[in-house]
Amino acid sequence: MKPENKHARQAEIERAAYDVLVQKGYAGTSMLAVARAAQASNETMYRWYGDKTGLFAALIVGDAAALHDALEDVVQTGGAPVDTLRRLAPLLLGALVSERAIALSRAAAADETGRLGKTLAEGGRDNIAPLVAGLIAQAIERGQIAAPSPRIATEWFIALVIGDAQIRRVTGAVPEPSPAHIAQLAETRVATFLKLVAPAG
Hints:
mainly alpha
């Protein structure tokens, strides 16, 4: 199979896997159910993904890469670091509270091996934090913000922007927020962050 054909087929299988996950939950999802939904053979499923955990790890890695690329695009547009942080925040918050992200987070919580949780951490915060830290380091150098270090300020930024929104979505306490609500939340939370790191005087 040509690489481009394999890539397209994998995309179809992974869309089917997500659909089955939403319908049946992680515990109720099997490789056979996904194979049937995707009209793929069990042999292909196991050859490409290894097992169910490998399949959903692939979904998490793909989503993390897409989010990183989207955030990287914002960073590469240039502009003042603080302004870029403002543009980054709603994109980050929106991605992490989306239906797809929440479904995969629930899958990670249900995975007894811990592999999905580790993959989620590596593709999530560990993947995103360096982008934010780079912007914050620039802002500190320019005297736009004051913080003990870029690493600590990055922790503050992510904690404030995300807050408990993702946890409340995973537990089903709140529905997916509208784009307008996400934009409002992000703006308010970035403002709080900037007050926290405002230079003295």
